[in-house]
């Protein structure tokens, strides 16, 4: 029998370090593994091409070097997948990714004016989607968040947070807006 702890674990440490002291993580999800499918296809096609080149080449040892590049690229992308997270806090939306070079891109929830969910046929079959974030008048740090797991649930949760932000702003106008 497996025991489940009642203690809330919170976001992983690799994400927690990017949270501000007053922030609390509302949603933290790892990207869908479907994001590796394109890299896997590219690695397989590269291996097939390298095999063809090896059989027709006068110097097959050079073409054999190509064998290593494609699987190594896929392994690198596969190793970076567990460190890619979409994080939504009570104040902002963040995309944290990267294995060797870590990138944390954030957008305040107050600046987001629209959220769109897009699902391709492959996304519906495999269970992922793309969130399109609208933020006019600003240089957007990220516009499309691809390979989001549980897309309908996340869309509803984020839309709910955005609606709460709008309610908070109308209930408590900023200083100088009163009058």
Structure report:
There is one protein chain. This protein is α+β, with helices and mostly antiparallel strands and 179 residues long. It folds into two domains: 24-32 and 84-171, PH-domain like, CATH 2.30.29; 37-79. The protein has five helices and seven strands; from the N terminus they run αβααββββαββα. The strands form two sheets. A four-stranded antiparallel β-sheet has the order 1-2-3-4, covered by helices on one side. A three-stranded antiparallel β-sheet has the order 5-6-7. Helix 2 runs antiparallel to helix 3. The longest helix has 21 residues, at 60-80. It is elongated and about 75 Å long. Mean pLDDT is 84; it is low at 1-7.
Largest sheet: 4 strands, antiparallel
Radius of gyration: 21 Å
Please tell me the total number of domains.
2
| Class by SSE composition | alpha+beta
The CATH topology of the largest domain comes to PH-domain like
CATH H-level superfamily of the largest domain: Pleckstrin-homology domain (PH domain)/Phosphotyrosine-binding domain (PTB)
The N- and C-terminal alpha carbons lie at a distance of: 63 Å
Mean pLDDT: 84
CATH class of the largest domain: Mainly Beta
Count of distinct strands = 7
CATH hierarchy: architecture of the largest domain: Roll
State the gist of this model.
The longest helix is centred in the middle third of the chain and has 21 residues, at 60-80. Helix content is 40%, strand content 23%.
């Amino acid at each position: 029998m497996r025991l489940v702890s009642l203690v809330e674990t919170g976001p992983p440490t690799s994400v927690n370090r990017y949270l501000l002291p007053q922030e609390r993580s509302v949603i933290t999800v790892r990207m869908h593994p479907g994001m590796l499918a394109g890299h896997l296809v590219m690695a397989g096609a590269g291996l097939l091409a390298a095999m063809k080149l090896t059989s027709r080449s006068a110097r097959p040892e050079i073409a054999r070097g190509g064998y290593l590049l494609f699987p190594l690229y896929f392994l690198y992308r596969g190793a970076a997948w567990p460190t890619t997270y979409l994080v939504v806090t009570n104040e902002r939306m963040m995309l944290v990714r990267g294995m060797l070079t870590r990138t944390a891109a954030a957008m305040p929830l107050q600046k987001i004016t629209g959220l769109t969910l897009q699902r391709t046929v492959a996304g519906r079959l495999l269970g992922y989607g793309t969130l399109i974030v609208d933020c006019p008048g600003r240089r957007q740090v990220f516009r499309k968040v691809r390979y989001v797991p549980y897309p309908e649930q996340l869309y509803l949760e984020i839309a709910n947070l955005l609606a709460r932000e709008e309610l908070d702003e109308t209930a408590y106008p900023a200083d100088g807006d009163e009058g």
